Amino acid sequence: MKKSKEQPKxxxxxxxxxxxxxxxxxxxxxxxxxxxxxxxACQISNAEEASILMFDPAKNTLYFQAAxxxxxxxxxxxxxxxxxxIAGWIVNNQKPVIVDDPQKDKRHFDSIQAITxxxxxxxxxxxxxxxxxxxGVLEVINKRGGKFTKGDQDVLLxxxxxASVAIENSRxxxxxxxxxxxxxxxxxxxxxxxxxxxxxxxxxxxxEQKKKMIDIMEAEIEALSEMSTSFLDLAxxxxxxxxxxxxxxxxxxxxxxxxxxxxxxxxEQAITFNLDLSDSLPRILGDRKQLKxxxxxxxxxxxxxxHEGGEIILRxxxxxxxxxxxxxxxxxxxxxxxxxxIFRKFYRVRSHRDQVPGTGLGLAVVKQIIxxxxxxxxxxxxxxxxxxxxxxxxxEA
Length: 397
Fold this sequence. Notes:
The protein is α+β, with helices and mostly antiparallel strands. It folds into two domains: 166 residues, GAF domain (Beta-Lactamase), CATH 3.30.450.40; 153 residues, 2-Layer Sandwich (Heat Shock Protein 90). The chain is 47% helix and 23% strand. Strand 1 and strand 2 form a beta hairpin. The model has no long low-confidence stretch (mean pLDDT 82).
């Protein structure tokens, strides 16, 4: 009996898959997990590139979430049409597919080449399934030294089964972690609301006290609303379900908009607000709405934790293909022993909690947005002197 030439390669791929599976099962950070999956897909199929598209059944959309050798901010969140793409066909039919020449396939999504600058000469795609439902698509393209085979497909399906379990485990871990923290955090405002309601029902309070109780209830309801909104923003960002709408835009215009939003507040509070923008700021690629939200969160904090007669400076410059944005204030500052905790979800500086309202989620949201754009955020601070947050974002010249 003649042995297949493919058999030794397939066995080797399965051996690699066994080693990879243990690594995937132990990873709970979703972004790291997805990066490991696409790298593994390339390795076991001998492909040049791999990508994961996630399926959102609520919106009935398919969007890029991870890929090898691509700038994350260029492709994450790019929506791929379900009816006019090979990936969409995989979702609708819940079947794997091998396409030897995607350029000639009527299902091929032509626009993706302009986004990735990669020509797709051959493709193998499989559905990622969990509990009988499609949660995404894993694709590999351009096999080195030949065409994709049935053996490649079988090995990729085996990887996909492992990957789907790992993705769902990561999401469940994140959800339980966030929900646990959220429930813990809402106990304080709920307790205040309960106490105020109990007093209002009693006959032991006069009209002035009733007004105070109503004011307390309104403040706590507002705090709960703000916390819920921030919590949902962060949950979407960290779960990988957030779709980024990437476009090229003028960062100077965005920063001036943010300045204009907060200038009336700073004037009312007798805080000097200065804008220091370089003349050579580049146009950048990113989700304009999300980056604006990040700047709003930073500037809002700079005002809340400042004082009458204080100062805020919003700066931006470009250096070595990096956009550097900073927000400096002359506010309360952060104690040295709490510096490592400042980006933790729901964390608020102990000495500020009774003085300034807040959810403790704003900076966590900012950090996630910046990381998702391939950037970094850092800060320096000194108590009673002030704080400077610095964002660094890459851009193409």
